[in-house]
Amino acid sequence: MSFEFGVYTFGDLTHDPHNGRPIGAKQRLEEIVAAAKLAEEAGLDVFGLGEHHTPNFAVTAPPVVLAAIAQHTKRIKLTSATTVLSTADPVRLFEDFATLDLLSDGRAELIAGRGAMAFLDTYRIFGYELADYDALFEEKIGLLLQINNNEQLSWNGRFRPELIDAGIAPRPLGGKLPLWIGVGRTPESAERAGRLGTGLSFAQLTGDTNRLKPLAEAYRAAGKAAGYTPDQLPIAVCGHGYIARTSQQALDEYFPYHANYFEHIMQKRNPADRLTREQFELSTGANEALAVGSPEQIVEKILYQHERIGHNRYILQLDIGGVPFAKVARSIELLATEVMPAVRRELSRTTAGKETGGPLR
Question: What is the pLDDT of residues 320-330, one digit of tens each?
């Protein structure tokens, strides 16, 4: 599998930490479409939209926004990142993304998850109980997979009305949608993705990359036991980041926005909880999740991750906390023109070395 690069966003709404100017939903949505166009023009492979259902996010309907993006792009893959499947109807969700797939000439993908623990208002808004957090997902991912594999089916479960010889349409251009499961920290979720034969998408926002290694191993072991081949078990890493010409520039420019995100979006407003500059810089280390630095540093971080988990896709969220579009655009360009080719060259060289028995990195 080729190594893919992309960017994603949740469209958070906050104010500029430097001038206090608010950022509205219309502006954010327009910038999201512009970012997707730029990502394609720069040569990236994937553009993703996450979803939250609170007033401080512009993206509550990813397939709608992705459909708008589809009309301005031709090649880039369009994915959710992540769909909160536990509070959605799998039938309607499949219909939405199959429609997107047709409108985009076969570019739609879907990453399904249970929802981030910090944003669980979704359950209350859509009338679900947090006590059913895992049961909801287990049932709904099973139904979604059945729909993806069958044009007509009968089904019965606990959380939605039964289906009796139901035809689910339209169908995706290629017959099936590429499905991934979003995973945070639990081995059970990684094993589930392997058992079901979906892709595995890590949400690595904080912490040491090494904690992902046993999860990746559990995923591949479960997939192998279920009869899936390695090429049917792709792994993606998604996280926050920012790229500038130099490390110091990246740290200086990005920190105010990163701190702004944690204060206003993550509600870390108690002075004791606020992120300090020292904590921020420590979280950008080579083995840490936060990808902030020069292109050379981001290359090293991705290669460090790849040595441990062997992922096939790397997707960055570059726009949290009110980062201006011009700075997001520069980061996208650096990711595409400097990080992406350097990583691919190194991985190609390493693969060639393994095949010939030559020196490895």
Answer: 999 999 999 99
From the list 15, 138, 137, 156, the residue with the least C-alpha distance to 85 is: 137
Q: Is there a contact between 87 and 126 (Cβ–Cβ < 8 Å)?
A: yes
With a CB cutoff of 8 Å and minimum separation 6, the contacts of 168 are 91, 94, 95, 147, 150, 151, 152, 153
Give 29's pLDDT tier (boundaries 50, 70, 90): very high
Which residues are within 8 A (CB) of 351 and not within 5 positions of it... i.e. 6 or more apart?
Answer: none
The tens digit of pLDDT for each residue in 269-307 reads: 666 678 899 999 999 999 999 999 999 999 999 999 999
Look at residues 307, 304, 295, 301 and name the one whose alpha carbon lies nearest to residue 336. 295
> How many alpha carbons lie under 13 Å from residue 120 in its C-beta half-sphere?
10
Contact 234, 315 (CB under 8 A): no
- Domains and their CATH numbers in the chain: 4-356 (3.20.20.30)
Pairing of strands 313-317, 235-243: parallel
Cα separation, 28 vs 26, in Å, equals 5
What is the model's pTM? 0.94
Q: How far is CA 120 from CA 36, 59, 80, 131, 261, in A?
A: 27, 16, 18, 12, 18
* Tokens matching residue 196: 């079901």
Q: Is 254 left (phi over 0), alpha (psi -120 to 50) or beta?
A: alpha
Would you say the C-alpha torsion 199, 205, 209, 214 has a positive or negative sign? negative
How many residues make up the chain in this entry? Answer: 361
